[in-house]
Automatic annotation (TrEMBL):
It comes from the Bacteria. The lineage of its organism: Bacteria, Bacillati, Bacillota, Clostridia, Peptostreptococcales. This is Thioredoxin. It comes from Maledivibacter halophilus.
Length: 103
């Protein structure tokens, strides 16, 4: 999760009007119901809201590009992509996904 959290922190550092609050999953499960995958909460789940707490969107677990690779179903591609993702090689894609949500 460190790469995704650091991506979000970098966005906040560059734009001081973006505020971040991290809340634990425990005690907030009811708010995560709409963001479960296969009826399970995923970590991390970032829910983005405007100043009036209207939900803009959510980033759930992995970048969209990885979800697309998984959907194609080629096991070798999935393993390679997930390894690279965990090493931080898709950080730009994570930032892109987050910016699309908040823009």
């Amino acid at each position: 999760m460190r790469n995704k959290s650091s991506s979000l922190k970098k966005i906040c550092d560059l734009n001081k009007s973006i505020k971040i609050k991290i809340v634990p999953r425990e005690g907030n499960e009811e708010y995560l119901e709409d963001y479960k995958i296969d009826d399970k909460p995923k970590i991390p789940t970032f829910v983005f809201m405007d100043a009036k707490f209207n939900i803009l969107g959510a980033f759930i677990e992995i970048a969209q590009i990885i979800k697309e690779i998984v959907t194609r179903g080629n096991q070798v591609d999935i393993i390679v992509a997930k390894r690279k993702y965990r090493k931080g090689e898709f950080t730009n894609e994570t930032i892109k996904d987050i910016l699309e949500i908040i823009s």
